[in-house]
Design brief:
heterodimer; A: alpha+beta; six-stranded mixed beta barrel; B: alpha/beta; Rossmann fold; four-stranded antiparallel sheet
């Protein structure tokens, strides 16, 4: 093998310019593939991280996916009931204390129970539809996505006596209210209650900043006339990827709909898969183009070296030796190109990571492009490059190996 | 003298639109330490016979045995291994690998066979080239050598693995008379002193007359076989 490698290296080093062009083709392909993968993976990771951060990993609600099994179905074999819908239960999650105690026993993470009710917030003649969310100020900060987004006040202020509310800054500006003002919350049951604004938050999500008002759980229960009720349990897990398993177990045990974040964002995650497929297709296409360069040089070498192939076969080299020789030449070019491409890719990623810009329209600052530094990108790019090089080298190598040395020797003489 | 090569009705026909007979019904025996010339007019099948004997080509009929081993039973790998260890080729053109030096060219068959250490290979290659008068040219590439020197390097490469059989296809065909004589002497020495068997295709009847045995081919057929100085002419008639 060492002999064949020596001959291979001698062949390609004897074609400096062609070799460099083919090598640069691979290097550019590998470099751009790595940079593109880092950028796309970074964007995806950032997007998923925001998804995971801004919503519960598992959300248990008082809904049920299917209607309860009817007694007639248990009593009569012939009974078949269709078209049933689960009934809305104003009582929310039945026996919440026991459910929360059961969750506390095994869930690897934190959770908080809430009562969410639809209502209207009024202030100074202005009205905004809102979800009035009753929370436990002790438990909510451990699962809430807005805990880091307070512009003024916090959840703890809710517990500081009286009827207090925390709203988004967009809602406040639409109402014309500010911190310390007193707004009126009206529930869908027609009950109303006045709350003092003790906190303002800005998450950047319009639906949340404009449509959510947080009050003490007790106040929400009074406002919606549902004493002691909760209708949501929000869970943050230590490992977000465990959400589907946790959700399945909760749903099986409690009977209520438990939605993992992956299920809630299934269409988005599917879109990300499609995006990844597109990305790797582009990477494969880039490498295919680089492969053509390698195919070209190996074809040229096999053509120019037809006489050498014949003489080596006459010396006792086998067809397999000849195939290995030219595949090695392709792989050697690709290996050099890959190493160069790794350096190029790293440099491009580093340069991209230095890019800073702001999204002034929303007032949010995005200081860096989201970049994923992953060895896997380098490995995948190298695998594509070496694989396409091996194929690009193999095709002319096979043809050359099959050539009849006698024909070549006769032609040469 | 033990038999090295034996053919029975050896035939090679090219299956083209109009079949072309290269070699037809050749039966012969070549023993060890023989110095055999294959003569005949152009297109008579001399080189084709040599390629068959050297396992570079496969016969379409008849049998070929080398040291009692029927070559028809050999797969490609065994044929390659046989060429590597038992047969040395010298062609009309040197066919040296141009990127390698004279010594590296001679080392290539040894490295492929892998019986010697790198040091032993270098030493043997140097010795072979020195024996052929190329001591000062070990590290020269083929394009830095004269035609005669290249052909001597090719002979050294053919001898690299110490094969019992040397097949030479017009080894002096592209050389001037002085270089031709040098190469002929080398081949003769291989037989007389080294105990090799040399089968050489040649157009040079004077050279053939100095060899032990002459096989004369016309239209792919063996028309005469002589072991004296009388060499058949181009038309198959005795030549003096």
């Amino acid at each position: 093998m060492r002999l064949i490698l020596d001959i291979a290296l001698t062949h390609i080093s004897g074609r400096g310019r062609q070799t460099i062009v083919a090598m640069l083709g691979v290097a550019v392909g590998v470099g751009f593939s790595i940079a593109m993968a880092a950028l796309m993976q970074g964007g995806q990771d950032d997007f998923v991280r925001q998804l995971v951060d801004t919503m519960p990993h598992v959300q248990v609600t008082d809904e049920q996916r299917t209607a309860r099994r009817q007694p007639a179905e248990d009593l009569f074999d012939a009974a078949a009931i269709s078209g049933l819908r689960p009934r809305d239960d104003r009582r929310g999650i039945i026996n919440p204390t026991e459910a929360l105690s059961w969750l506390d026993g095994w869930v690897p993470g934190r959770f908080a129970a809430t009562l969410k009710a639809q209502g209207v917030i009024r202030y100074s003649g202005q009205e905004v539809g809102a979800a009035v969310i009753g929370i436990d100020p002790q438990a909510e900060p451990r699962v809430s996505p807005i805990i880091g987004d307070f512009k003024a006040g916090n959840f703890a202020a809710l517990a500081a006596g009286g009827n207090n509310v925390v709203i988004g800054d967009t809602m406040a500006s639409r109402l014309g209210a500010k911190l310390g003002d007193t707004i009126t919350a009206v529930s869908s049951e027609g009950l109303s209650r006045r709350f003092k604004i003790v906190g303002l938050f800005h998450t950047g999500t319009t639906a949340r900043d404009e449509g959510e008002a947080y009050v003490l759980q007790k106040n929400a229960q009074i406002l919606s006339a549902r004493p002691n009720a909760i209708n949501e349990i929000n869970i943050k897990l230590d490992d977000p990827n465990a959400a589907p398993i946790v959700a399945r177990r909760i749903e099986a045990e409690l009977g209520y709909k438990a939605v993992a974040w992956q299920e809630a964002n299934e269409s988005i995650l599917e879109a990300l898969v499609v995006r990844n497929v597109i990305m790797y297709t582009v990477v494969a296409a880039i490498m295919l183009v680089a492969g053509f360069g390698i195919f070209n040089i190996i074809s040229t070498i096999t053509h120019e070296k037809a006489r050498d192939i014949a003489i080596m076969k006459s010396l006792g080299f086998t067809e397999a030796d000849m195939r290995i020789l030219f595949v090695l030449e392709g792989v050697a070019i690709a290996t050099a190109g890959t190493l160069l491409g790794w350096a190029l890719g790293f440099a491009m990623i580093y340069a991209l990571s230095l890019v800073r810009f702001e999204l002034a329209a929303t007032g949010q600052e995005m200081t860096r492009l989201p970049i994923a530094w992953s060895m896997l990108h380098y490995v995948i790019a190298a695998a594509f490059a070496l694989g396409s090089a091996a194929i690009a080298g193999y095709l002319p190598a096979r043809r050359a190996a099959r050539s009849n040395p006698v024909d070549i020797i006769r032609g040469a003489t | 003298m033990s038999t090295l090569i034996e053919t029975r009705d050896l035939t090679r026909i090219l299956n083209e639109t109009v079949p072309v007979t290269l070699v037809k019904d050749i039966s012969l025996t070549i023993g060890e330490r023989e110095f055999v010339a294959v003569t005949g007019p152009s297109g008579s099948g001399k080189s084709s016979l040599l390629y068959l004997l050297g396992l570079l080509d496969r016969p379409t009929g008849g049998t070929l045995t080398i040291r009692d081993r029927d070559t028809a039973r050999m797969d490609e790998d065994e044929r390659a291994a046989t060429r590597l260890a038992n047969i040395g080729f010298v062609f009309q053109f040197h066919f040296l690998l141009p990127e390698f030096t004279a010594r590296e060219n001679v080392e290539i068959p040894m490295r492929k066979l892998g019986r010697l250490s790198r040091g032993e290979m270098r030493e043997r290659a140097s010795d072979l080239l020195a024996a052929l008068g190329l001591t000062d040219h070990l590290n020269k590439r083929p394009d830095q050598l004269s035609g005669g020197q290249r052909q001597r390097v090719a002979v050294a490469r053919a001898l690299a693995n110490d094969p019992p059989l040397i097949l030479a296809d017009e080894p002096t065909g592209s050389l001037d008379s002085k270089s031709s004589e040098q190469v002929f002497k080398i081949l003769e020495t291989l037989v007389r002193e080294k105990g090799k068997t040399v089968v050489a295709v040649t157009h040079d009847l004077d050279m053939a007359s100095r060899m032990d045995r002459r096989l004369h081919l016309i239209d792919g057929r063996l028309t005469s076989e002589t072991e004296d100085a009388a060499v058949p002419g181009e038309d198959g008639s005795p030549h003096d």
